[in-house]
DNA sequence: TCACAGTTTAGAATTATTCTAAACTGGTTG
DNA sequence: CAACCAGTTTAGAATAATTCTAAACTGTGA
């Protein structure tokens, strides 16, 4: 077996067990999307961009499935949704504690490691409410 | 002239000059929307919510005009757009330095004064980019 | 009072996203 | 290993927020 094929098989096997552990049936589509997504640990995709990517790779997956899958992965804790743009939703393969630069012009997200930024003085939330997350978005533009 | 009418006339006059200063022609619709918006200094509205409010007040303004006006006011620096919800855009009458609690369940925004929260350690942006704003959103839920 | 640039508007158009109902497919069972 | 079925995928319709368009209207300066 050629090296590339061996690696691909390996990736598929890894992805499959990762999905199973997350309680998701490893269907062809989910394995293919997950393989693309989790190849790198700091990817930021849009439903549209991921659909383009998977399509260009010659794989046939409907846009509806991409949406479904992104939401399922998010619920399973494999992805995190990032809300920075009124026009579309981003999903981040980095689910750990971290923040973002957002390039408003290009619609590009860049991770800022969690230890880098410190947010002090967050007041106690109104009674009966629990803090779920503190998001910091550093909006930047081409000067 | 009755007290209420006198106050209303006063508000209208104030609003009118405020709009003129912002370089916006004080049309009936703009004056009416501005009067509602800037009565309080910490309002958070949605195009839909503002349109409902103005309609219930018996004023006839189209939804398209509400959208136009919110964007014009934002460009003129009278409002600030807040992006916290993938489903809709919020506009904030507080344009100063401050942050927000966002009640995910209710879709409600609450201001956190600018001095309260301190963000330290924001890294220099990638070359050629300038920081435009640092947004902090404290997402909370009913416990 | 006139004229016109700037506004408003109804309704169509657009765009991201979700829904629906029918076809399909992993995984399990006999 | 064949049949079954709950869970998935899909095309296309539906939805919802927002923007666009072209025609009617209105402040404002002369």
Secondary-structure topology with pairs:
The structure is a homodimer of 143-residue chains.
Chain A: H1 3-21, H2 28-37, E1 44-46, H3 47-56, H4 63-75, E2 80-82, E3 90-92, E4 98-103, E5 108-113, E6 118-120, E7 129-142
Parallel strand pairs in A: 4-7
Antiparallel strand pairs in A: 1-3, 2-3, 4-5
Helix pairs in contact in A: 1-2, 3-4
The structure holds a DNA duplex (30 and 30 nucleotides).
Structure in words:
The structure is a homodimer of 143-residue chains. With 143 residues, chain A is α+β, with helices and mostly antiparallel strands. Chain A has a three-stranded antiparallel sheet. A three-stranded mixed sheet of chain A has the order 5-4-7, with no helix packed on it. In chain A, helix 3 crosses helix 4. The longest helix of chain A has 19 residues. Chain A is globular and about 55 Å long. At the A-B interface, strand 6 and strand 7 of A face strand 6 and strand 7 of B. Chain A binds a DNA duplex (30 and 30 nucleotides) through helix 2 and helix 4.
Distinctive features:
3-stranded antiparallel beta sheet, 3-stranded mixed beta sheet, DNA-binding, homodimer, globular, alpha+beta, 27% strand, 143 residues
Q: Work out the strand percent of chain A.
A: 25-35%
Q: What is the helical fraction of chain A, as a range of percent?
A: 25-40%
Largest sheet of chain A: 3 strands, antiparallel
Count of discrete alpha- or pi-helical segments spanning 4 or more residues of chain A: 4
Distance between the termini of chain A: 51 Å
Number of strands of chain A: 7
Mean pLDDT of chain A: 94
What's the Cα radius of gyration of chain A? 17 Å
Q: What low-confidence regions of chain A span 5 or more consecutive residues with pLDDT below 50?
A: none
Topology order of chain A in helix (H) and strand (E) letters? HHEHHEEEEEE
């Amino acid at each position: 077996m050629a090296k590339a094929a061996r690696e691909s098989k390996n990736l598929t096997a890894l992805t499959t067990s990762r999905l199973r552990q997350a309680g998701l049936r490893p269907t062809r589509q989910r394995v293919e999307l997950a393989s693309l997504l989790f190849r790198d640990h700091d990817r930021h995709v849009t439903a549209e961009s991921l659909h383009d990517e998977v399509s260009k790779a010659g794989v046939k997956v409907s846009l509806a499935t991409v949406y479904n899958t992104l939401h399922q992965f998010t619920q399973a804790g494999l992805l995190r949704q990032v809300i920075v743009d009124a026009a579309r939703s981003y999903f981040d393969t980095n689910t750990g504690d971290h923040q973002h630069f957002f390039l408003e012009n290009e619609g590009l997200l860049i991770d800022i490691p969690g230890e880098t930024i410190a947010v002090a003085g967050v007041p106690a939330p109104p009674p009966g409410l629990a803090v779920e997350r503190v998001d910091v978005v550093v909006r930047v533009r081409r000067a």
